[in-house]
Design brief:
globular, about 0% strand
């Protein structure tokens, strides 16, 4: 009998990178294939995870301490790939935390987020391989911990988690990845572009999963989905929307026209207020 939350907890806490990837694949396939689920009393108790399983490196620093490098050099491209790899590594932990943290959800919820963890692990492996081709490894550049900070802010309520992690932080990847691809094409790095194109296509599904379960939780609580989402965005400074927005990808990922129009207006107001 499969216990998805116990499997998720083990993957979440694993700190050795390649062991986490291997465990993720095994756990993800086990959850996808499961016909029977353990009863709730057999599940692990939920504890806050201040620091998920991660290696000693990369060094974590404040975002403003990260150096911006030009993409016309190998180390500049490696730094960009490393930054995306760090996002994907965090996304593995975020997906497993979504499984572990919130008991009482339908079985399809756990299957969905386990499948996301498997995808994110594969994305990380693709980026690590590309880093190795350039002579680097994960941990060679500093990184920041903003993604996991949002996990902590939202770890008390699955509705808030679905709103602010997949529909804000991960959706931002849909917005900025096309620009990364364009910049890499200009310097002839078609190998990295191919990896990012795979990630972009698959991240649409991940954000759509967040949209779907957010809508489900709003229905169960008799809340209007669009209004609730926008109120959560307005009330969390780290969720501030920014331009540009990939409207085609966001529509495919479960945003509606009302949400997109309101987000666009908020982002424009924020840009004027900040002078950017």
């Amino acid at each position: 009998m499969t216990n998805p939350r116990a499997l998720a907890q083990a993957c979440l806490l694993e700190s050795i990178v390649w062991d986490k990837l291997a465990q993720t694949q095994i756990a993800g396939h086990a959850i996808a294939a499961a016909e029977h689920w353990c009863d709730e009393p057999n599940n692990p108790p939920v504890h806050r995870v201040p620091i998920p399983g991660r290696p000693e490196r990369p060094e974590l620093v404040a975002p403003n301490q990260l150096t911006q490098r030009k993409l016309n050099s190998i180390d500049g491209r490696a730094a960009l790939i490393h930054a995306v790899a760090h996002i994907e590594f965090n996304a593995i932990n975020l997906a497993w935390d979504a499984v572990y943290r919130f008991p009482g959800m339908p079985a399809a919820y756990y299957r969905d987020w386990a499948s996301v963890a498997v995808d994110e692990a594969r994305h990380f492996a693709l980026l690590a391989e590309r880093l190795a081709q350039l002579g680097y490894a994960y941990g060679d550049f500093p990184a920041h911990n903003g993604l996991w900070q949002m996990a902590l802010v939202t770890d008390h309520d699955p509705l808030i988690r679905m709103a602010l992690v997949p529909r804000v932080l991960e959706a931002r990847g849909l917005d900025v990845t096309p620009g990364m691809i364009d910049r890499l094409l200009k310097v002839g790095d078609t190998q990295t572009v191919a990896v990012l194109q795979v990630i972009l296509a698959e991240e649409v599904r991940h954000v759509e999963i967040g949209s779907r379960w957010f809508a489900y939780l709003c229905r169960t609580r008799n809340l209007p989905a669009a209004e609730t989402f926008l109120e959560l965005v307005r009330s969390h400074p780290a969720a501030r929307p920014r331009l540009p927005m990939n409207q085609v990808a966001r529509l495919a990922a479960g945003f509606d026209a009302i949400e997109l129009h309101a987000l666009q207006q908020l982002a424009q107001a924020n840009a004027i207020f900040s002078g950017t």
